[in-house]
Each structure stands twice: as structure tokens, then as C-alpha cells.
């Protein structure tokens, strides 16, 4: 069934009957490409990456697959790795931070 639908879409797009549909699809794809460019430039992640973040609750980046990394990582682990300290604490809002040695046993 999927093959039939795919072939039908291709045939419809190639034929002259799809004049208005093709320009609409082109406009949508152009807008998405522009939005993805802006998102990637400002956040270093694309629209798909942000969508995966929301769905999984993790930190996702599809381009990690090229670097032999997992596409999605746990956000907390990522934050702790970026802090690069030996001892961690959480504030009342659940944010993680480093603990200095003098503060460790308070």
C-alpha cells in the first residue's frame, strides 16, 4: 500500500496536474530549510534534533551518528560532564552544580 501511495505521489508530482501542489510543497520545504538553518545557527541543533529532545526528554543530535556517538544522551549526564568536577549537588529547582571542597560537608 505504501509503495502505491509513493508511486502515485511521484506520478502526480511529475504530471502537469500537480502545478499548484508542487509550488506549495516547494514553498513549505524552502520555509523549513530556512527555519532549520536559523535554528542550527543559533542553537547548533536542527529542527529534528529539537523535536527528538521534546519526544525523548533527552539531549539529541542526529549528527552524532557520524561521530559514532549515541543520537540521544541523558541531559543530566551531559550537564555533569560539562561541569567537570568531583562532587555535585542539586539546588531546590533540581539544577546540578559543583561543590567546592570547603562546602562539601556543610
Structural write-up:
- The chain is mainly α and 106 residues long.
- The chain has a domain at 75-106.
- 54% of the residues lie in helices and 9% in strands.
- It has 4 helices and 4 strands, in the order αααββαββ.
- It has helices at residues 2-14, 19-43, 47-56, 75-83; strands at 59-60, 72-73, 88-90, 96-98.
- The radius of gyration is 23 Å and the shape is elongated.
- The model has no long low-confidence stretch (mean pLDDT 75).
- Secondary structure tally: strands: 4
Distance between the termini: 66 Å
In N-to-C order, the SSE pattern is HHHEEHEE
Uncertain residue ranges: none
How are the elements arranged and paired?
Blueprint: H1 2-14, H2 19-43, H3 47-56, E1 59-60, E2 72-73, H4 75-83, E3 88-90, E4 96-98
Antiparallel strand pairs: 1-2, 3-4
Short synopsis of the structure:
With 106 residues, the protein is mainly alpha-helical. Helix content is 54%, strand content 9%.
Which descriptors would you attach to this protein?
4 strands; two-stranded antiparallel ribbon; single chain; 4 helices; 54% helix; 106 residues; mainly alpha; elongated; two-stranded antiparallel sheet
Amino acid at each position: 500500500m505504501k509503495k502505491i501511495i509513493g508511486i502515485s505521489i511521484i506520478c502526480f508530482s511529475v504530471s502537469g496536474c500537480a502545478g499548484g501542489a508542487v509550488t506549495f510543497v516547494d514553498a513549505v520545504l524552502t520555509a523549513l530549510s530556512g527555519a532549520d538553518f536559523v535554528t542550527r545557527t543559533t542553537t547548533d541543533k536542527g529542527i529534528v534534533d529539537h523535536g527528538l529532545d521534546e519526544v525523548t526528554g533527552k539531549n539529541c543530535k542526529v549528527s552524532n551518528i557520524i561521530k559514532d556517538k549515541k543520537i540521544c544522551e541523558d541531559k543530566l549526564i551531559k550537564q555533569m560532564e560539562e561541569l567537570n568536577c568531583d562532587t555535585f549537588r542539586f539546588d531546590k529547582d533540581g539544577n546540578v552544580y559543583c561543590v567546592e571542597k570547603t562546602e562539601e560537608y556543610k
